[in-house]
Design goal:
The chain has nine helices and four strands. By secondary structure, it is mainly alpha-helical. It has one domain: SGNH hydrolase (Rossmann fold), CATH 3.40.50.1110. It has a four-stranded parallel sheet, sandwiched between helices.
Length: about 325
């Protein structure tokens, strides 16, 4: 009974946290900030250290000895993976397959919970430059213009409370747009025909960790079969207590050779690691990448890093 009560309490927190939709803030002019060395430095962005390299990609070489297990990402391994990685060569193969299927080369989808809805994730970039400031990241304007229409679109595979199993449950599909037996994920891909999908799940999987790996595999494999490049993302929280869900996400990204946005690392230097008091929901601020105060919050950092990896994948395949 205590576990059930805790479960109901967590659901109420998730619902409450997603109910308050931030309103767009019209930016005001500010004096550009003096350059300083960020806590995490990277080539062309402040979220990737050139000294941190992704763990080796899996190979087809046999294991030297049957008594030695195959290496897999550990808790320490995924924590040091770069925020914005080198984009794996396999994305070109997936992209070409998607083009053969008729996917849109300048469209993307979002797969996740309430944090994947436009009010929180990337929506401002479909509303014009009044609603965001790129600062030193002006080069991202090209990818913003190229993918217009995807940023503010509400995905049919992103809803409050969604976990890795929900996207394959026809009960949760929008019957005004989806077919009678269609899953949310299949419906989203059929209607959007995306080149890429941000897969941002895990925070609602804490109560059924055993099913997270197989369900994430299904999402990745269904995406690849559909010619959609799955971009996985670690989560900011550690609600499961042992980091195992993030470790699973990183391991699967390496196994399937698909891009991993290590968002967890990007928020480690932020106050409270970019999390609200509940330790799960991300702190909000306007998307002003030239505003040091705004960039102490989790959401503008998430939107910046998402734009960076979208730009990196787009330039890799075009």
């Amino acid at each position: 009974m205590r576990l059930y009560s805790k479960f109901i309490f967590l659901l109420s927190i998730l619902a409450a946290g997603c109910a308050a939709v931030p309103t767009a803030v019209t930016p005001t002019l500010v004096v550009p900030l003096a350059k300083s060395t960020p806590a995490l430095t990277l080539v062309s962005t402040p979220f990737l250290s050139p000294t941190l390299q992704p763990s080796p990609q899996p190979t087809t070489s046999p294991i030297p000895s049957p008594t030695i297990p195959a290496p897999s990402p550990t808790l320490v391994d995924w924590q040091v993976l770069p925020v914005i990685p080198e984009i794996p060569e396999r994305v070109i193969e997936i992209y070409k397959h998607g083009q053969e299927l008729g996917n849109n080369p300048v469209a993307f989808s979002k797969v996740g919970d309430c944090g994947s809805t436009p009010a929180w994730f990337l929506g401002d970039f479909d509303h014009g430059s009044r609603f965001y400031r790129l600062g030193e990241y002006q080069s991202l304007e090209d990818v913003i213009q190229a993918f217009q229409g995807s940023f503010g679109r509400t995905s049919l595979a992103a809803k409050a409370g969604f976990n890795a199993s929900s996207v394959f449950t026809p009960l949760w599909a929008d019957r005004t747009q989806c077919e009678s037996d269609e899953t949310p994920l299949a419906c989203e891909y059929r209607l959007q025909r995306p080149m890429l999908a941000f897969i941002m799940l895990g925070s609602n999987d804490v109560w059924h960790k055993d099913s997270f790996d197989p369900q994430m595999r299904k999402i990745i494999e269904f995406s690849i079969k559909s010619g959609v490049i799955p971009v996985l993302s670690t989560k900011a929280d550690n609600d499961e207590g042992d980091g195992s869900l993030n470790a699973t996400i990183a391991r699967l990204a390496q196994e399937y050779q698909v891009p991993l946005l290590n968002y967890w690392l990007a928020v480690q230097s932020l106050p409270d690691h970019g999390l609200q008091e509940d330790g799960v929901h991300i702190t909000w601020a306007p998307n002003r990448f030239d505003d040091a105060q705004a960039m102490q919050h989790g959401w503008p950092v998430r939107n910046l890093t998402a734009l960076q990896i979208l730009d990196a994948v787009w330039r890799k395949v075009k």
